[in-house]
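Contributing new records

If you add data, match the layout below exactly. Sequence lines come first and carry their own label; structure lines follow with theirs. Keep one chain per record. Anything else will be rejected by the validation script.
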Amino acid sequence: MAGYEDRDGLIWMDGEMVEWRDAKVHILSHAMHYASSVFEGERAYNGKIFKSRAHSERLIASAEALDMPMPYTVDQIEEAKEATLKASGLQDAYVRAIVWRGSGEDMGVASARNPVRMAVAVWGWGAYYGDAKMKGAKLDIAEWKRPSPETIPVHAKAAGLYMICTISKHKAEAKGCSDALFMDHRGYVAEATGANIFFVKDGEVHTPTPDCFLNGITRQTVIQMLKDQGITVHERHIMPEELDSFEQCWLTGTAAEVTPVGEIGPHKFEVGELTQQIAKAYEELVRS
C-alpha cells in the first residue's frame, strides 16, 4: 500500500474537499514545532460513525484545553465527517479529525495570532493489532510513565501526549510485542499506548481509574455494557504486583476495539469466556 501522503481520495480541510495529495500544510505551522494539535480517531461501521457526536464533543473539549478556540461547532464537525465518509465511498472505515494551530504571525511558543485549522480524513483500516484479536496481544512494560495532571492537560486527546507512546511502542515492537503498558506517575497501572486496559478476576472486572489519562469512549461503552449484563466493574488504582492475580485481560479503544491480551511482560492471561463475550457483544453493538 502507498504511503499516507500518496493515495487517491479527498480530505476535508477548513470547509472544502481537497484532493488527497494536495492536503498539505506549511512547514512553519505552529503544530509542527510545538505540538499544538488535538485529534479524534473514530470508526465507521456499515456507513455510520460509532459514537460520532461524543467524539466531536471531545475534540472541542481537547482544543479548549490547549487554548485553541475551535472554529467549528459540533454540528459542523458532524457534517464534515459525514461528507468525508461519503466522499470516501467506504462503509467500514477509520475517521481522523484533527485540529491544529497553523502558520501565521507567531512562530514562538505563543501562537494566539495563528489560525486554528481543521481537517478530516477517512481510510480503510483493519484490526489494529492484527491477529492478536484471536490469540491475545503481547505487551511490553514501558519505561515511561503517564504524567501527573498537574504537569499537562492529561484528559485532552492531544498530539504531544503521544510522544512517549511512539517511543514505547517502537521498543515494544522491537521485542516482538504488539504494544506497551504504562504505569502512571504514582506507579499504578495506567493504560497501553493507545488503548485502555481491563482485567478479570473471579468473574469481576477491574480497570484503572482514569485520573491521569484519557477516559476512552470505547472504555466507557464497554463499562456500561458490562454493567448492563450484571457484571461487577471496579474502577480503581491497580498496583503492578497485582497483575499475576488476574485471569483475563483486554484492551479497548476506537482502533483497538476490544482486543484480548495474552501476555504483559512475564504475566500470562487466558483469552477467556468473558473476554470473548464482551468482544463479540461490542462487535454486535457497533454494527447494530
